């Protein structure tokens, strides 16, 4: 029985060691009054200036922790969130290019603009099963009009025009019985061989 208890204790200690440790984020900045407007002498802060009364002890100035601009914008909370997002990138080995993804930005913008106090982000299994299937169904629905091209046919149309800087462009579009669909635009300057 003692051997079993010892094994249980060892396994609990090993599992505690394997848990990710909480490492605090770097401290955020705290704004202090500029040193040019204050002089420290004899452990009191005295204002510079021509009008100093002898024997008069001015009130001690307190360091400003939150300025008037920091309060409404909640800069410390923003820095905390930035640090957590950065740590997510570093710890998971995510490419920094992910920060340029519009869906990444949209997710955080949506969360910030809506009061989602009790929101818990989706977990591993939900992302890889339910949400993946939902996104796949959405893409299938969006691609449905292109699947009828084999049955009903499609017409490829091109049109030349100039952009606001007067550079020649060629538009390529497909026309189906439902609607036209833009495919791509090419610059006629760089594709002179293509035009011949």
Structural summary, described in words:
The protein is an alpha+beta fold and about 200 residues long. Among the domains are: about 120-145; about 155-195, no CATH class. It contains seven helices and five strands, in the order αββαααααβββα. It has a three-stranded antiparallel β-sheet, with no helix packed on it. It has a two-stranded antiparallel ribbon with strand order 1-2. The longest helix is centred in the C-terminal third of the chain and has 24 residues, at about 125-145. It starts with a helix and ends with a helix. The model is unreliable at about 30-50 (pLDDT under 50). InterPro entries: DUF659 (IPR007021). Pfam families: DUF659. This is DUF659 domain-containing protein.
């Amino acid at each position: 029985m003692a051997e079993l208890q010892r094994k249980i204790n060892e396994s609990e200690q090993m599992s505690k060691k394997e848990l990710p440790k909480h490492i605090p984020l770097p401290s955020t900045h705290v704004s202090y009054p500029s040193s040019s407007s204050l002089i420290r002498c004899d452990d009191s802060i005295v204002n510079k200036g021509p009008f100093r009364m002898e024997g008069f002890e001015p009130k001690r100035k307190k360091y400003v922790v939150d300025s008037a601009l920091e309060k409404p914008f909640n800069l410390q909370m923003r820095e905390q969130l930035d640090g957590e997002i950065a740590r997510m990138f570093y710890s998971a080995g995510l490419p920094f290019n992910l920060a340029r993804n519009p869906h990444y930005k949209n997710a955080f913008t949506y969360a910030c603009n809506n009061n989602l106090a009790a929101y818990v982000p989706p977990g591993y299994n939900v992302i890889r099963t339910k949400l993946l299937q939902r996104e796949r169904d959405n893409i299938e629905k969006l691609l449905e009009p292109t699947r009828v091209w084999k049955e009903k046919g499609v017409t490829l149309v091109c049109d030349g025009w100039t952009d606001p800087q007067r550079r020649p462009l060629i538009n390529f579009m497909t026309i189906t019985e439902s609607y036209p669909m833009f495919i791509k635009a090419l610059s006629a300057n760089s594709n002179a061989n293509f035009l011949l």
